[in-house]
Design brief:
Elements lengths: L6 E4 L5 H10 L4 E4 L4 H4 L7 E2 L3 H5 L4 E4 L4 H9 L13 E4 L5 H13 L3 E4 L2 E2 L2 H5 L3 E5 L6 H11 E6 L5 H29 L4 H9 L6 H12 L8 H17 L5 H18 L8 H7 L5
Parallel strand pairs: 1-2, 1-4, 2-3, 4-5, 5-6, 8-9
Antiparallel strand pairs: 7-8
Helix pairs in contact: 4-5, 8-10, 8-11, 9-10, 11-12
């Protein structure tokens, strides 16, 4: 049964560790590996087996799941020295869940093909908080014949899974969603800065906004965080900045201009340069208010 199949989770950082805990809670036997071992050790107390290398982690697993910072890290973890591919049998499944962009997803799919692995591209949408409670949405794509094996995995990780066709479509959808998130969050920050510049109480704006059809739970929560100056990282600004670059790269590949997204690069880079890279995306309010004459 799929629920009894051992899974190797490679990458147990801010996103990978909660995923591993969700899988353990669902009863999956789990082996974990992380480049910095200390970040994986806490999972041993929850029942995970620690492995010294990706190859060792994958040796007894039928499914390997990568949640790593970028495409290069994912490629090295699977295909590099002591990589997981050397420990996997042909026909094993590789679930790639990191946000690595369209171009890297194509490259990773080729690596999987070379090692006779079934490649499932399945990034997740949501922030660190929802991940702890299995509230993320899984954007899955890959061969139909893999769905029955990975469905219990996705059910444990998120509250809903969207199957989007061929491998690569999951990443494409993640890029599109993150582009919307970036543009709408910047618009929210600038709107709050404008309300302040006009002498309005930003908290009153938030109350009015929440009572209109314009509001969304995300925007209300992010607006409250901006007003309170609460930048505890749920989605660090540096990662959001990386994701805007992935959207711009994908657009350029298809001859499309995204002028609104392109305008974010300079503004967000300014906030990062002023020390907000590890803060939540809400920290972009500091840049918006600074441009309006207030120190951030």
């Amino acid at each position: 049964m799929a629920a009894q199949e051992r899974i190797a989770v490679l990458g147990t950082g801010g996103m990978g560790a909660p995923i591993a805990r969700n899988l353990l809670a669902a009863g999956f036997p789990l082996t974990v590996w992380n480049r910095t071992r200390a970040r994986a050790e806490a999972l041993a107390a929850d029942g995970a087996r620690l492995a010294p290398t990706p190859r060792a982690a994958a040796a007894s697993a039928g499914i390997v799941l990568t949640m790593l910072a970028d495409g290069a890290a994912a490629a090295d973890t699977i295909d590099g020295q002591k990589g997981a591919a050397d420990g996997l049998a042909p026909g094993s499944i590789w679930i790639q869940m990191g946000t690595v962009g369209v171009d890297w997803t194509k490259r990773l799919a080729q690596i999987a093909k070379a090692h006779e692995l079934t490649f499932v591209d399945a990034p997740v949408s949501g922030s660190t908080g929802p991940e702890e409670q299995g509230e993320r949405v899984v954007l899955a794509s890959g061969p139909e014949n893999a769905q029955s094996r990975v469905r219990p995995v996705f059910d444990a990780i998120g509250r809903r899974t969207f199957w989007l066709g061929r491998a690569g479509n999951g990443t494409g959808m993640k890029v599109v969603l993150n582009n919307w998130l970036a543009a709408s969050t910047e618009a929210l920050a600038e709107t709050l800065a404008l309300s302040d510049a006009l002498g309005l109480d930003p908290s009153e704006f938030a109350d009015v906004f929440a009572g209109t059809p314009l509001a969304s739970p995300y925007a209300v929560a992010k607006g409250e965080a901006m007003i309170a100056g609460d930048f505890a990282p749920g989605f660090p600004l540096r990662l959001a900045f990386k994701d805007t670059a992935l959207a711009l790269d994908a657009a350029r590949e298809h001859g499309l201009e995204l002028p609104l997204t392109a305008a974010l690069e300079g503004r967000w880079n300014g906030a990062i340069a002023r020390g907000h890279g590890e803060d939540d995306l809400a920290a972009i309010i500091t840049e918006a208010t600074r441009r309006n004459g207030s120190a951030g």
